[in-house]
């Protein structure tokens, strides 16, 4: 009897306030769903990347932030948000939930260090738990427009992901996993990751950006064939 191929190891380097990371995760998971019929599977590990490591706790208006950081006009920002909204809705599997982005011109963007600490904790429990928390944090930010530095928002996300709310609160209050997150962020930057999402397969193949499922499918099939 032929043994099943070993799952591909995928590091999904991303931030929970990155809209293209929502698109990229949807595309990646849709591709993996299609490839499972070919015996190609993967283990996804979520790795931390902060788009705004120096941002104040009160965050910043999204339109002002994009204008200052990238030179985009309010009109360009609105057009980009509309396009990303469509891409996110299309990218996520048709599981009855989809993904709805409600980010508008009055929305805010946040520092996400505490969110990454919580994701590290979830990952220490299991990959499924980490994946569930990642989605809950995406939805808290992009769908519900809630402030991500707020401990109640983060513990709500943990509870929505099926995790222990009280333990999540203790992780946040204790400053747990701060060193581990800083170390992981430094590691991925040292490997040349300067923009997200960055999908690193088997530690050596890089797929950059919020790609559609077809792109991920082709790339992963090729990588699996080289294994």
**Rough outline:** globular
Q: Counting H and I runs of at least 4 residues, what is the number of helices? A: 9
Calculate Rg over CA atoms: 17 Å
Overall pLDDT:
94
Strand order of the largest sheet: 2-1-5-6
Secondary-structure-derived class: alpha+beta
Distance between the termini: 19 Å
Any low-confidence stretches, pLDDT <50, length ≥5?
none
Topology pattern, helix = H, strand = E: EHEEHHEHHHHHEEH
Q: What composes the largest sheet?
A: 4 strands, mixed
Q: What proportion of the residues is helical, as a percent range?
A: 40-55%
- The total strand number stands at 6
DSSP strand content: 5-15%
Quick structural overview:
By secondary structure, this protein is α+β, with helices and mostly antiparallel strands. The protein has nine helices and six strands.
Protein architecture, described:
By secondary structure, the protein is α+β, with helices and mostly antiparallel strands. Helices cover 53% and strands 11% of the residues. The chain contains nine helices and six strands. A hairpin with a 3-residue loop joins strand 5 and strand 6. The model has no long low-confidence stretch (mean pLDDT 94).
